[in-house]
Amino acid sequence: IITVPDGITEGTETIEISFEYITQDGDTISASATLNIIDYVTLDLQVDDVFVCPGSTADAMAMIENGIPEYTVDWSNNTSGMSTTFGQGSAGDYYSVVTDFCDKQDTAYFEVFEPEPLNLENISPFYCIGIDTDALVSGGSPPYEFTYPADSLELLEGGGFSTDITGIYDLVVSDACDDEFEFTLIYEACDTQIPNVFTPTNSPNDVANNAFVISGLEGFPGSSLKVYNRWGNLVYENRNYFNTWDGGENPDGVYYYIFERSDGQVNEGYVHILRKKP
Questions:
Q1: What is the distance between the alpha carbons of residues 42 and 40, in angstroms, rounded to a whole number?
Q2: Which of 113, 139, 157 is the last residue of a domain?
Q3: Cα 169 off chain centre by
Q4: Which of 89, 113, 137 is the last residue of a domain?
Q5: pLDDT tens, position by position, 158-216
Q6: Tens digit of pLDDT for each residue in 215-260?
Q7: What is d(CA 255, CA 42) in angstroms, rounded to the nearest whole number?
Q8: Which of 130, 259, 248, 278 has the alpha carbon at shortest distance from 196?
Q9: CA–CA dist 217, 130 (Å, integer)
Q10: Residue 38, domain member (yes or no)
Q11: What is the DSSP string of 5-45?
């Protein structure tokens, strides 16, 4: 029996075959068989991209659906079989070809990746408490996993850290390839610096220098600020100041401030409000 493809999906078709024959002794023998004819479903080959960790190997796997077994799989790195192995230095583009019992073929393309080395970056001799660090890790194979004192440090989205507690903190970072680094972050209460001018504006698109920002204030929560006009009238007071005074409705001009830091240090001086012109 020779089947002829008709391009119509009909499910499994069955042919019943039966026959009889007479032996030399005159006995009648009968036999039957069932032949199933199935539709050919297009062969499909998939190969996922491969990630090779430093100093290790990784396998590309042929994932085959449909067609008719047995399958033969050939790879562009001159190997054959249901899988092939890649090691360090193999990064690049590859393909695989599968051939089934019916001599139908399908091709899948994939890429072999190798990560850059895991690196620490933006590590400073010390950090100011209350100030977020930039991302500290690059390269390697994300996601990164940090081991750190969670009761003191806060891990930020993107891989930075923040804390309001001075101290020396030991950390470990590892990636998906189990590469790791140990490093230390030192947090100090940085000295405050007070500006003598700020330039508020009502524009939401221009917020630079928009408030009376005392740098290093994050290290001294509970500090207070009083601001007086030229006639000695109190125009602003906050017993837990956190860089929020934008001048309010007060006109441009010079104002006198008293800033009492939470550690007892008192600073007095003048600040000029100079609003930006539209």
A1: 6
A2: 113
A3: 25
A4: 113
A5: 899 999 889 999 999 999 999 999 999 999 988 899 999 999 886 565 567 889 999 88
A6: 888 888 899 999 999 999 999 999 999 999 999 999 999 999 999 9
A7: 81
A8: 259
A9: 8
A10: no
A11: --S-----EEEEEEEEEE-TTS-EEEEEEEEEE-PPPPPEE
